[in-house]
Amino acid sequence: MRTPAHGTGAAVTVVLPHYDCADYLGTAAASVLAQDRTDLRLIVVDDCSPDDNWTAALRPLAGDPRLTVLRTSENVGHLRIKNKVLERVDTTYVAFQDADDISLPGRLRHQLALLERDKADLVGCAYEVIDAAGRGTGRRRMPRNGNLWMRLGRSTVVLHPSSVVRREVLQRLGGFDGTVRLGADTDFHLRAARLYRLRSVRRVLYRYRIWPQSLTQAPETGFGSAARLSYTRAMNTRERQRREARTREELLPLLVAPPNDIDFRLEPVAVGG
Questions:
Q1: 40: closest CA among 82, 12, 64, 62?
Q2: What is the number of domains present in the chain?
Q3: Residues in contact with 234: Cβ distance below 8 Å, sequence separation at least 6, in sequence order
Q4: Which residues of 185-200 are buried (b: 16+ CB within 10 A; e: fewer)?
Q5: What integer pLDDT is reported at residue 224 of this predicted model?
Q6: What contacts 207, CB < 8 A, 6 or more positions away?
Q7: Exposure pattern of 209-245 as b/e (b: 16+ CB <10 Å)?
Q8: Residues 47 and 77 sit within 8 Å (Cβ to Cβ)
Q9: pTM
Q10: Is 208 a member of any domain?
């Protein structure tokens, strides 16, 4: 597959990391490429999966010039992957997609319209929760005005993989905490809300899969796990430091994420056959 080219006229780059997710990967990638905004790029990054079975899931999409497929030189987690990919992105907007989820038709069109019309900086959407088999188990609307709800004490105002953000926001804030494998999406939203407008489309535009092997459900990484609780405590400590900053000069350095602490490569992968 080709690497992302400059000057292709794309408005948004969609970043889709995955690890050993062959069962759902093809559907996730196809749902992005089927969006009715054609001015997009999709970068799929394999996080050094144990085998190459996942490539078959992307084979039907291999002829699409908007698709780039990469592999990490070692397993590093989705947050470090996103930081690394952002170094080569030059589109105005960056969108995210999980490998086990589905973007519904019109997702990017509605989110980009809100970004452009309301001068928002990060936009999420309402979503449907599905199980391992794709059956719907409920729907959730996120707050239209995320900044307001954060001021009222709520920390989760956007479902990260359903979001679209201005690239300049990611650049200014240093992307995601590059020292961890989980939890730093909420940290990014807390930092972004200090300077930027967080909004959500009220329409359901995303299908979010909750199943036993997902990052938020697995015993080692899920909600309530020791790793996630430890990161949440550290994140809350940093947020208190930001609240205590008395001047903008004191605050701004506290909004920049630690860079990746692992040096790794992104290597192109051919999935056509």
A1: 12
A2: 1
A3: none
A4: bbbbbbbbbbebbbbb
A5: 73
A6: 101, 102, 103, 104, 127, 128, 129, 130, 134, 136
A7: bebeebbbeeeebeeebeebeebbeebeeebeeeeee
A8: yes
A9: 0.93
A10: yes
Q: What are phi and psi of 33, to 5 degrees?
A: -70, -20
Any idea which residue has 């790793």 for tokens?
227
The 10s digit of each residue's pLDDT in 205-239 is: 999 999 776 666 666 666 677 888 999 999 999 99
| 94/182 Cα distance (integer angstroms) | 20
Classify residue 116 by its DSSP letter: H
Domain at 62, CATH number: 3.90.550.10
Query: Structural domain of residue 107, as residue ranges?
Result: 12-268
Give dist(CA 171, CA 132) in Å, integer.
35
Decide: helix, strand or coil at residue 165. Answer: strand
- β-bridge mates for residue 50, sequence order: none
Q: Which tokens in the block code for residue 102?
A: 């589905």
- Tell me if 15 sits within 8 A of 266, measured CB to CB: no
Structure tokens at 125: 């959407």
β-bridge mates for residue 80, sequence order: none
Q: Is 240 within a domain?
A: yes
DSSP lists the bridge partners of residue 18 as 46
Is 206 a member of any domain? yes
The answer to whether residue 7 sits within a structural domain is no
Q: What is the pLDDT of residues 101-117, one digit of tens each?
A: 999 999 999 999 999 99
CB burial class (10 A; 0-12, 13-18, 19+) of residue 176?
buried
